[in-house]
Give the backbone structure.
Amino acid sequence: MSISGIRNTTLDNLDDLCTELDARAVPLSFLLAPRLAGGYLLSEDCRTAQWLRSRRERGDAVVLHGYDAAATNKRRPEFASLPAHEAGLRLMAADRVLEHIGLRTRLFAPPGWLASPGAAQALARNGFRLLAGLSGVTDLVRQTTTRARVVGIGAGLLTESWWCRTLVLSAERTARRGGDIRIAVSARQLNRTGPRQAMLDAIDLALMHGATPGAYRWQPLSARADAA
């Protein structure tokens, strides 16, 4: 499960959800952007940065989620249509911020889950190893993609009650078939009973059908060779 829109005003609700998921041994992936709407700067939010560092030490994942989530083209998410050079500049700027606050990562999920071919090239050139897109997760080192569509609530995805029910049913069907389930939610939705309960119901049903919990990870080449 991944969560975006993390900031000081959403941290209390997020902490409550983490307590629920810790009890289920379900790790989280935190999607971080150095800048958010309203002039928010992660580098100035010491409480949230410290909380995220402590969560990563417990096994959760930190995933870069763009630089400022700005629309770089009309009605298009950041990184959805950028050429490689501009994408690279944004990646380097975001990388410097996360390194400065002790949250550097080699994992990337673009805003809107959409990355242009140029953005994908820039990610590989700048040392990123994993790209989590709308329809699958790409290992940028091995150039392989695991197909699994992300479903979620908020942050460009639907939030209506009927969609919450659909998400739960979709997670159950996928788990029953043994497929990969990728659930995403905006932290702003966690103060609403419907979306929050839908997340927990989807996770509980997936676990009941034998799904193995996991966060976004990149497996080093040597580790896979040793396992073989």
In short: Residues 49 and 101 are 7 Å apart (CA to CA). Residues 2-227 form a domain with the TIM Barrel fold (CATH 3.20.20.370). The longest strand covers residues 182-186.
